[in-house]
Structure formats: structure tokens, C-alpha cells
Amino acid sequence: TKEGQFKAVILSSLYFGIIHLFNLIIRPPGVVLLQALILSLPGLLYAALVLRYQTLWPGIIMHWLVNASVNIKLIGVDSYQETLSMWGIAAAVTIPLALLSLYWVWNLPVEKQVEGFQELMPVSP
Fold this sequence. Notes:
Blueprint: H1 2-18, H2 29-38, H3 40-53, H4 57-73, H5 84-106, H6 110-114
Helix pairs in contact: 1-2, 1-3, 2-5, 3-4, 3-5
């Protein structure tokens, strides 16, 4: 259903953020918890792209581009330190994008939502 798919998008994006808790090994807990919460938001965009185009590639490419741009920016920076204010700015940028992604998912035509998933969830006669 539309509601079920919407819930799946939210849960998958939360998982995307939670998986970043592995950073607790090398970073301070306050920063990592905020990072995990904020990184759930781009997960909404990645899920919306996957549903829209019926393939994982748009989400993979977008995630790679985001990671690459951050890492390229940090080339030559020896004393990089994540801060809470940095993640606050990231939230200010990603919250509108997350809301737009939810809007896109909610407004996908029903045919688009189930296309490609028929073999996984056969409809009974």
C-alpha cells in the first residue's frame, strides 16, 4: 500500500542513519549521535530515488557524490574536527530536502510504487 511503502522509506532511512553509529569507535558520542540522526534525512532522498527509478543506482550514485564531495573538500586539511554546529548546518540543509523526498514518495503513482516488486510480492487471485 501507499502507507506501507511510505513507512518502509522512513524505516530504511532510519537504518541508514543508525548504521553510522559504528563511528562511535573513532568519534565522540555526542557528535556521532547527531550524525546518525541527521544522516537519516539523506536516506529519504536515496529511497525516493530508488522508488522513482526502480533501481538502486541513483541512490548509490547520489551517496557516492555526497561522500566524494566531502572527502575532496577535506584534502590537505590536517586538523579536521567535526563539531555540533557543523551538523546543525547540515541539518538545516537536509531537512528541506528530506521533506521534499517524502512529498515525492507520497505522490508516486500507485503503478510506480508496485512496479518491479510484483515478483517479490505476488498478488493472490
